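Because discrete structure vocabularies remain unfamiliar, we reproduce here a specimen of the format, pairing a chain with its fold in token form:
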Amino acid sequence: MSDQSSLHTLTWPQPLAALELIKPITWFPPMWAYLCGVVASGQPVMDRVGLVLLGLILAGPIVCGMSQAANDWCDRHVDLINEPHRPIPSGRIPGMWGAWIALAMSALALFVGWQLGPWGFGATVFGVIAAWAYSAEPVRLKRSGWWGPGLVALCYEGLPWFTGAAVMADGAPTWPVVVIAALYAAGAHGIMTLNDFKALKGDRALGIRSLPVVLGPERAARLACLVMAIPQVIVAVLLFAWGKPIFAAAIVALLVGQGLSMRVLLQDPKAKAPWYNGAGVSLYVIGMMVAAFGLRGLEGVL
């Protein structure tokens, strides 16, 4: 073995680079969705505060962090084009360490998920499989602008919501909880499409058929706006039909705010997509919690 390869093998990842690899900024959506499920379950939080905290850690730092590490490892060639400063292509996470971190966190996720009971463990198994199916060959669903964002949206919004409600209820969530979680997961497909704008150059070069690549930025942005808006309209209609008019009105008000932000986005989708991810998406996730509170107490209504 040469001196260079020996040095390469013995090099450890930089601690801050390892933290950057699992991207703490991405942990918020699944943690928030898990909290939405906890709230929507209608169960007293303080009676199961340990499960709530454990579920938050599992949904964010562990499962989401693992998915980020797996994605960066599988995307290391793409990132050489799009973002060469990232931990793996820059060499701050050397050798096979990116893969080892992702695999170790996958095992940790399954161990922690087991502590949440059969529903929590089942959801964790699905989330781990989905993370690898999204990023890794030969499946690599991220090559599709439809299946890839759909799977991520499901795992970021719908699955944690379902899990939080199931863990709190010690069983399957009520059907209104499942329906609302599914609607917000469907709408999040649009959010994930907008997130693909940042990788447009590398995706084109390497044949990843994201919707911004396939449809072009303008058409992809218009489609993303529709995909985000329609499920929220349905949520508002359902809450009104279920006798929750105040919560329905709040969802409509938040949707109006998103509509104003969408007008700005559509003026220059490629440049404004990062801005919208801060402005419009914030209103979207606030609406998720509003809907979760609206679901409390529906057992006596339906």
Notes: The first helix runs from residue 3 to 10. The radius of gyration is 20 Å. Residues 18-300 form a domain with the Farnesyl Diphosphate Synthase fold (CATH 1.10.600). The mean pLDDT is 90.
